[in-house]
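Proteins fold reproducibly. Take a tokenised chain:

. . .
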Amino acid sequence: MATMTSTTRVVAAPPSVVSRGWLDRVLSIFTDVHGGEGVTAILLMLNIFLLLAAYSMLKTIREPLILTVPGGAEVKSYAAAAIAGLFIILVPLYSALASRVSRVKLINGVTLFFAACLIAFFVLSRTGVPIGVAFFIWVGIFNLMVIAQLWAFANDVYTVEQGKRLFAIVGFGASLGAIAGSFSTGQLVKLYGPYPFMLGACALLVLCMVLTNIVNAREKRTRAAHPPVEPATASGAAASPAADADDPVRGRSGFALVFRDPYLLLIGLLMLLVNFVNTNGEYILGKLVLGAYTATHGAADIAGMDAKKVIGEFYGNFQTMVNVLAAVFQALVVSRVLKYCGVRIALLVMPVVALVGYTSMAFVPLLAFIRGAKVAENSLDYSLQNTTRNALYLPTSREAKYKAKQANDTFFVRFGDVLSAGLVFAGTTWLGFAAREFAMVNVALIAVWIVLAIVIGRSFKRLAGTN
């Protein structure tokens, strides 16, 4: 299988060209920020803050909408198959669009499409149309495509060296946004119900689009004032001129790039495996939440608005705990782990923690304990793991950042959900699995995850010339 990944990068002007301002010095408390880098880092941080706030709103309200349909916990797992099937169509369409328009037009168009969908869902909900399953599937598409797109943009803006330093700041915005979105929704959903938050998320998406355009214009001006230096590739050959930001991202489709490049394919398999494990854990948690509610209120009340509000409040508080812990990790731990330990070690932290959690969960299958284990797992996923897996694309080509990343962050992630749905079906229909058995399956999967993370870490070191 031929290796297509290119390590050609556009290197920004040396730090000595631009003196450090007050913002650069303040941000240096958290990570190493060179002169002139602070403004773009803050704008990207604010952008992903708003995006994650919008997603956290939608993620919180989708739970009561899907869990209160008949067979909600199982339907939630099975809906992943529909999402993965749609991505088989959507990823090539996205790649074709990226080949025809500039990066900012690509991002604007996709963002406006999803904003329009939110307005449509709100109108349908007001007319009494049941939207639970459709909305759950839509959120599963939205969160992967739009977030992957923004991280691709950040990868395109930064070099490998800059990304390892500055992605921690960008990721901190994601953590704060997730806290703001989940906390506000968890507090207000019991008063207003889930539907008004669709319009709130729509407004935040429009603001995200404005910020992307500001960053794009700023980086074009910076590049014009300080022409980039073209380094040699990892193989020692002279690098070709980098594509201009206004040019379309031409080349193969996302799936073609992934299946022709072992490094990109390994990342896709990692995404699949991580989500397989995480979705199994979400099923365990969702099933126990439903069990706790029906034990208190009775099964007959599960389809009512009261159940939507109670379950929505539980998930709002759960997501808030996850996001607060993730923000602490992002601010105080992530940049230091990447700086002193490197990407290779950072890739291993979450699977080791998850291994301990699910091994313990198999012997203590109680809601309070499983909630705690999932808080630890998800907080690392949203902070260190998220920043690290996005950094894996820093030494790749521009087309890999936009197209292959879409394939990996969408289809491969959701195919992990499909495998989880198959496990749930087999476990509940034929095998009689309870929480303990699902946890033990995860223990076996995590062992494979650790091996895969080691192989990818070595490949990253070879491509980037750094840990």
Observations:
- Residues 1-16, 229-243 have pLDDT under 50 and may be disordered.
